[in-house]
């Protein structure tokens, strides 16, 4: 894809003073009931789709008289670091979180609710009291091979991340891909329901992926892993070279 096709809201090819802007966070809450927690890969993929649904929702878009109710918050958030925090809820906690403005996205069994951005120190009380820890999820079996014709968010095979951390990183990867796509490719992805896979890359292929020109998530190092670590490569077919 040529740089002329890159949307103006993409920071991928352009430096910006993102640390100097007021910092906002995109909250995501994953439903984890004791009796039936979701599979790890299902939760990761659902979180990534939730971010895309929020980015493309009409309430997040527009300017002036056509501005959606979340549009200014979304701009403020995207002007700074694209922080995401994943918390868990069940039972009454989930019901209270679901009553707040936001969007619930479902996967095979996973449920993730994404909320409009909040200031770093201004979380709603219903979300602030939810736990970040305890999102350790497992896959009952190895995930199937991803569809080569659909987007794949490749995870760094050398990093051990909790499910919550990996959900946030998958969301980052989906967002970088979204920023890089043309309007036509965004429309096609949205109308298809945002199909995507999240998989751990083969160790032998990881370095090639990071050097392929595809969007790469580099973590700020606030939690779990070292600053600057490459966590995800966003492999969307429309962004592949050649």
Automatic annotation (TrEMBL):
Pfam families: PTH2
Feature: compositional bias, Basic and acidic residues: 11-21
Region annotation (Disordered) ranges: 1-21
InterPro entries: Pep_tRNA_hydro_II_dom_sf, PTH2
Organism: Streptomyces violascens
Repeat among keywords: no
Keywords of this entry: Hydrolase
Protein name listed in UniProt: peptidyl-tRNA hydrolase
MF terms (GO), sorted A to Z: hydrolase activity
Catalytically driven reaction(s): an N-acyl-L-alpha-aminoacyl-tRNA + H2O = an N-acyl-L-amino acid + a tRNA + H(+)
Domain of life: Bacteria
Similarity annotation: Belongs to the PTH2 family.
EC number: 3.1.1.29
Record's keyword annotation contains RNA-binding: no
